[in-house]
Amino acid sequence: METEASSTDPTIPTHTKAWFYSEHGKPLDILKLHPNWSIPQLKHDQLLIKVVAASLNPVDYKRMHALFKDTDPHLPKIVPGFDVAGVVIKVGSEVVKFKVGDEVYGDINEEGLSNLKSLGTLSEYTIAEEKLLAHKPKNLSFIEAASVPLAMETAYEGLERAEFSAGKSILVLGGAGGVGSFAIQLAKHVYGASKIAATSSSGKLQLLRNLGVDLPIDYTKENFEDLPEKFDVIYDLVGQVDRALKAIKEGGKIVSIVPPGFSPAIFFALTSKGSILEKLRPYFESGQLKPILDPKTPVPFSDVIEAFSYLETSRAVGKIVIHPIP
């Protein structure tokens, strides 16, 4: 195990270039580039990471819009970003899984909507606890790896909470987005779904087919609840629990990540765990699970504001990843 480097070590950075905001609002209005953001002191269970790539998630701009202000203590200054792929620069004294030079990835905020870090991943360097990180699969680039953690872990946790298992059918509402595309792949390749249906707009139906969806549904032309078929599990990523109740089998389960997520649906916010990524690593390395990247990926670090504006249109197909990080 590498020992923790001295704080006076000239090779260990104390400041970082980072995107930040100091008030709530639209990314276009509030995001600014800080040339010299102070890096917090490393705790014993943490790692300092040189960020190679970072992906954007809707939770980032929702946080900017003050949706979590009651549980987010960090204004006046926040560096956004949950997902990271990078190289370990320094390790805390209690870290055992990783050493300096390791290639790692993860979602650095353990709780999805509260206790969020003030130094996120849209920066040259970031800090994360050991338990939130995993070794990057060898066959994934940093760009691909950065697109995975939050969306994949959310997809996995939802399927686990719904007690999804082999032989069950599933309907994914919003199948072409980051979480949806992974939920489909997990249901097919990890859990052994008997049938997969998913909704998307007209232009994304082929993506659904490519992911392994048996029944792609164009939500602009048909209502999924009017189909004769009912499902064992419905994974709601768009906020349609009321309609999902009409399409679930008796005894089936609805899981949702869209607040308020009313009963009987199972509503949850992700708890980030590096162990999930480690568990799924063989599926990535065998090619069964694949990152889905939006055609605009990779986006340069200088274009973060434009990338957020695009993400907010809901037109992205797969994930938007920022790379290179200066």
Automatic annotation (TrEMBL):
Molecular functions (GO terms): oxidoreductase activity, acting on the CH-CH group of donors, NAD or NADP as acceptor; zinc ion binding
Residue ranges the record marks as coiled coil: none
InterPro entries: ADH-like_N (IPR013154), AOR-like (IPR044626), ER (IPR020843), GroES-like_sf (IPR011032), NAD(P)-bd_dom_sf (IPR036291), Quin_OxRdtase/zeta-crystal_CS (IPR002364)
Record flagged with keyword Transit peptide: no
Keywords, ordered alphabetically: NAD, Oxidoreductase
Keyword Cell cycle found: no
Protein name according to UniProt: Enoyl reductase (ER) domain-containing protein
Similarity remark: Belongs to the zinc-containing alcohol dehydrogenase family. Quinone oxidoreductase subfamily.
Pfam families in alphabetical order: ADH_N, ADH_zinc_N_2
Enoyl reductase (ER) domain ranges (all copies): 26-322
